[in-house]
Design a protein that fits this description.
Strand content: 15-25%
Shape: globular
Oligomer: single chain
CATH topology: Rossmann fold
Number of helices: 6
Mean pLDDT: 94
Radius of gyration: 14 Å
CATH class: Alpha Beta
Number of domains: 1
Helix content: 40-55%
Number of strands: 5
Order of helices and strands: EHHEHEHHEEH
């Protein structure tokens, strides 16, 4: 099994940026935990602060044809990018489940953060479970594929 984990803008700062909202654990620490928990699964991690690079990566996942799922935290682009939404929809239509993750509870934050353009095209959305949302997303994908 192979799962892509994709992070959008500013998520390279996990553990440093606004820890009361996003926690103090880094993405690197989270990836180590995920890899230890799912030993038989290959994880491919990608992070970019650039919208087009995220779209290119999602399209490549489909063309490579060897992914069982995608976990995406699009960061601020989840609230603003129709183009990223369309790329997620393309992945799902290709038969690859995408789980949309928000570390914080966007439903209780600023009004502009409460809009999530990815939810309706994703297989599943996890909101407000902190960094554990990534693990829950992997659990969701592995349960679908078992």
């Amino acid at each position: 099994m192979q799962i892509a984990i994709i992070n959008g803008p500013n998520l390279n700062l996990l553990g440093k940026r606004d820890p009361q909202v996003y926690g103090s654990q880094t993405m690197e620490q989270t990836l180590v935990e995920i890899q230890r928990q799912w030993l038989g699964t290959q994880f491919v991690y990608y992070q970019s602060n650039h919208e087009g690079a995220l779209i290119d990566r999602l399209q490549a996942i489909v063309s490579e044809g060897n992914y069982d799922g995608v976990v995406i935290n699009a960061g601020g682009y989840a609230h603003t990018s129709v183009a990223l939404r369309d790329a997620v929809e393309y992945v799902v239509q290709a038969g690859i489940p995408v789980v949309n993750v928000h570390i914080s509870d966007i439903r209780t934050r600023e009004a502009f953060r409460q809009i999530d353009l990815l939810t309706d095209v994703s297989a599943h959305t996890i909101i407000g479970h902190g960094i554990n949302g990534y693990k829950e997303a992997v659990e969701y994908i592995t349960a679908l594929k078992s």
